[in-house]
Amino acid sequence: MPKVRLNDVEIYYEEHGQGQPMVFLSETACDGEVWKINQVPEFSRDHRVIIHDYRGTGQSSKPSIDYTTRMFADDVIALMDHLDAEDAIVVGHSMGGRVAQLLALDHPKKVHKLVLASTGAHYPQTKGLPLKICKEMIEWGYDKYEREHTILVGWTEDYVKKHPEKIENYLKVRMHNLCPVEFYLRHLIARQSHDTSQRLKEIKQPTLILVGEGDQNMTSEINHRMSSEILARDIPKSKLVVLPNERHSYFFSNPDEAHRLIREFIRE
Amino acid sequence: MPTVRVNDAEIFYEAHGTGRPFVFFSETACDGDIWKLYQVPEFSKDHLVIIHDYRGTGKSSKPSIDYTTQMFCDDAAVVLEQLNVRDAVILGHSMGGRVAQLLALDYPERVSRLILASTGAAFPGATGLPLTMVKEMIEWGYPKYVREHTIQVGFTDEFVTTHAERVDEFFRTRLANLCPVEFYLRHVLARQGHDTRDRLKNIRVPTLVMVGEHEGDPNLAMTHRASSEILAKAIPGVQFVVLPGQKHNYFASAPEAVHQIIRNFLCA
After folding, report:
1. CB-based contacts of B220: which residues, under 8 Å, 6+ apart?
2. Mean pLDDT of the residues in chain B
């Protein structure tokens, strides 16, 4: 079982394939397993794909301390040091995109190109736990919230109706290792506090920004569609691609198109 | 049904007895019914006792907007205006004590004496919804959280064992009208956002600060014991009383002793 002791925690990771390193960073409180559905099989054919479980998730340590995206980034850097991985393609989805920005800004040698998928630089107002999320988690229970919320923000009603088995397949992986709710909340606080809004212009790497056309769910004051446009406006070498008819989880509903866009961007 | 319209909300209130006006403010997300167990019967003998339901609780309106203690204060001021109340005794328990401070500061003509019971001026450094509270609400469910948490912070183990029927009676009232969880959370945010630290020196009315000897809430950054001591130091001419053997809910666990202390303060 590949684990590395970094700073105060043990971080679980996996490596698949050979080639230019490619690091995938998951959404809020989500471990690395979800990438094994589509992205690991696709990119491990010609890349060294690195996935890991954030502290607080999966098989990594879960210290009961305040988390920050900076701390998640430091864990990834320590892991890349351990694996001697540089010049990677870093793909960050949602909260993972916030961590990816910090990698690109503070460890430019580690990051060759950046893919920021359905993410943003900051939540200007809501710094603590968003009320709407807490309310729904309390009313529905944690498991049901995660399930319902993932479906609602992830896919269009049409897709959900047409592909129930694909949704279930995804949820089986996502719910399998659902972290204790304490760490979900700690991840949320880390996400809400993240702020790179004043530093985006310093990102030097070529950056592909992906967002679903319908990624407009509001858990606090800004949605991923709006925040992706801010990223595209402020990151110098960036290109924004809006995926039609997609919401938040196109890596699972439309992997072929997402992979095509990423491969094209890597080749450029 | 006595209600008063305040801008966007209807505020429910009740007045009992005649004499010197005496206004009671409840703890976080708690309506006015709680005072009918012991305090309304006692003080309506020789006072005009006024209780009300904060917006978001009881029979008052529940608009889905951000709440502040200032808003609660302004709502109460409209009730007092409606009843043509001046020079009242104002008693606030816990969050109600924060509202009471604002009433004394912003509507001095309405206030002749102030009783601040187990309350404080601010939660320095703690923004947003407290993680442990949200975690417990999710894990236990909302009504169970209110019950367990209130027992934990409200009553000593000994009292719970020796006075089970009084604890049950308290919860029959407290849980009868439990507000929807959204408004509990909005009240918590209002409480966490309250800050009168710089204004305490401007409170000019005779003030009684009370706190239970054994008060401590593991979910809060600062205990009521510590925050009451800050109030006692900062407000000019305070009488400070620590209630031996008590925790947070001595209005229900030791009403006779508390009423005597209040009556002595009002006569002094």
Report:
1. B123, B126, B130
2. 95
A3-267: which CATH architecture? Answer: 3-Layer(aba) Sandwich (3.40)
Asked if residue A64 lies in contact with residue A182, where contact means CB atoms within 8 angstroms, the answer is: yes
What tokens does A138 get?
């309390």
Structural domain boundaries in chain A: 3-267
Interface pTM, i.e. ipTM: 0.90
B190-246 residue pLDDT tens: 999 999 999 999 999 999 999 999 997 766 678 899 999 999 999 998 999 999 999
With contacts defined as CB-CB under 8 Å, which chain B residues touch A139?
A: 142, 181
- Return the CATH number at B114: 3.40.50.1820
Helix (H) or strand (E) holding B266: helix B255-267
Tell me the residue type at B76: A
Distance of alpha carbon B233 from its chain centroid, rounded? 20
Global pTM reads 0.92
Selecting from A129, A135, A181 the residue whose C-beta is nearest the C-beta of B182 gives: A135
3-state secondary structure A60-128: CCCCCCCCCHHHHHHHHHHHHHHHCCCCEEEEEECHHHHHHHHHHHHCHHHEEEEEEECCCCECCCCCC
- The string of pLDDT tens digits covering residues B15-74 is 999 999 999 999 999 999 999 999 999 999 999 999 999 999 999 999 999 999 999 999
Inter-chain CB pairs, A–B, below 8 Å: 47
For chain B, the residue count is 268
- Range of B262's domain? 3-267
Distance in Å, alpha carbon of B149 to nearest chain A alpha carbon = 15
Q: What is the tally of structural domains in chain B?
A: 1
